[in-house]
Write a structure and sequence with these properties.
With about 180 residues, the protein is an alpha+beta fold. It has 2 helices and 11 strands, in the order ββαβββββββββα. The strands form 3 sheets. Strands 4-5-11-7-8 form a 5-stranded antiparallel beta sheet, with no helix packed on it. A 4-stranded antiparallel beta sheet has the order 1-6-10-9, with no helix packed on it.
């Protein structure tokens, strides 16, 4: 009837969880999802939990995180939190070697960890109006760009050399006078 109905179960572009659980492997992680309330708790495999060692989330009811700009290869978030938090992003997790990098206030920051079987999560420090960026910067893209630049410069150089030799030898001569 032309009315928008809000989904009360939607979590948004990102959220801070109140706790996390470390499990030994992917099977245990997948099994834990059945009883999980993802708004409050994240499940992390042991292999990805190194950056969470000794970290206990202190509940902060005033903490908030918002998506401030979106492009498929660059997402910007702003957040405010009185204590260190664990943010979960409903984006597919890719290992850092595949190109996704994190920046906090313009400086390189820790890599994401995998949470809830396939999502990205990140431990973020306390702060006010902090700017968190996710950028897709694969090494293969930079390497391919450099190869394309070198190939283009060589092509232009060979074309210029060919023109030089043609005009140095007297220019183009018509061998078929009509």
């Amino acid at each position: 009837q032309g009315q928008v109905i809000r989904n009360p179960m939607a979590y948004g572009h990102s959220w801070f969880v109140k706790s996390y659980t470390v499990v030994p492997d992917g099977d245990a992680e997948l099994n834990a999802l059945g009883a999980l309330n993802p708004r409050d708790t994240a499940v992390v495999q042991q292999d990805f939990a190194a950056s969470l060692q000794g970290f206990t989330i202190q509940a902060d009811s005033t903490a908030k995180i918002d998506l401030s700009a979106y492009h498929p290869d660059k997402m910007e978030y702003t957040y405010t939190a009185a204590t260190e938090q664990l943010a979960v992003f409903p984006e597919q997790y890719y290992p850092p070697s595949k190109g996704w990098k994190c920046y906090l206030n313009g400086q390189p920051y820790n890599d994401f960890i995998k949470a809830d079987y396939m999502l990205r999560a990140l431990r973020v420090p306390a702060g006010k109006d902090m700017k968190l960026e996710m950028r897709f910067e694969p090494t293969s893209w930079k390497t391919g760009g450099m190869i394309a630049l070198i190939a283009s410069l060589l092509t232009i150089g060979l074309f210029a050399a060919g023109l030089f030799f043609v005009f140095k030898s007297g220019g183009l001569q018509d061998s078929n006078p009509l």
